[in-house]
Specification:
It is a single chain. By secondary structure, the protein is α+β, with helices and mostly antiparallel strands. It has two domains: 2-90, Immunoglobulin-like (Sandwich), CATH 2.60.40.1120; 100-171, no CATH class. 25% of the residues lie in helices and 32% in strands. The chain has helices at 105-110, 112-121, 125-131, 133-139, 146-155, 164-171, and strands at 2-10, 21-26, 34-37, 43-48, 57-63, 66-79, 82-90, 100-102, 142-144. It has a seven-stranded mixed sheet, covered by helices on one side. Strands 8-9 form a two-stranded parallel ribbon. α2 packs across α3 (125-131) and α3 packs across α4.
Length: 192
């Protein structure tokens, strides 16, 4: 039996979010691998039959009003037979928009305009992408497989040096930045 435990924190206050449902999913599955409700301080524990590599998973969080955005904080921490994770619940996002699953760099190119639209829908989305592209894509509901992430990092090696402190500062800002970044595209244009 594999175990995963962690907590759900509110994105803005960083306090535990109680009584929300946490689900773990594999990218192409139609049902969650496991689910649990958070306790009084946002803590949860999930168990599933077999160990799943954390890079293959993503999370969904639901409150009584429906789904809210789950943002993975940092990365997984493996401790013997358990995996620990901290999730941030962004209750500001409109979850009527379904996650977009991307399995390759070509799929990302083919969905470039939809990706840009999702990034611009985030508060300070252009800045977030500039500071930490992979985190910004995740916040925008773009779910990259591990293979797609690896290809992305080959195409955009600067993304390996993401500014986590700057990203978190911009993400927690109460309003727009003084300077706005508007994305025109992610990939270089075709040369004629």
């Amino acid at each position: 039996m594999a175990r995963m435990c962690g907590c759900v924190l509110d994105l803005e206050s960083r306090r535990g979010v109680e009584w929300v449902r946490v689900e773990i999913w594999k990218a192409q599955d139609e049902v969650p691998v496991a689910a649990a409700f958070t306790g009084r301080f946002g803590e949860f524990r999930l168990e599933h039959e077999s160990f799943i590599e954390p890079s293959e998973l993503f999370f969904k969080i639901f409150n009584e009003d429906g789904q809210i955005r789950a943002i993975e904080e940092q990365s997984f921490c493996r401790m013997e037979t358990e995996i620990h994770v901290t999730l941030l619940a962004d209750q500001r996002c409109d979850m009527n928009v379904r996650d977009l699953f991307i399995a390759s760099l070509d799929e990302l190119r083919n969905n470039e305009q939809a990706v840009i639209n999702r990034l611009h829908a985030l508060p300070n989305g252009g800045w977030l992408f500039f500071l930490n592209p992979l985190n910004a894509l995740s916040e925008a509901g773009i779910r990259l497989t591990q293979s797609a992430k690896n290809d992305f990092l080959k195409e955009f090696p600067f993304a390996r040096n993401a500014d986590h402190a700057g990203y978190n500062a911009v993400r927690s800002a109460k309003g727009p930045q003084t300077t706005t970044i508007t994305l025109q595209g992610i990939f270089k244009g075709k040369e004629s």
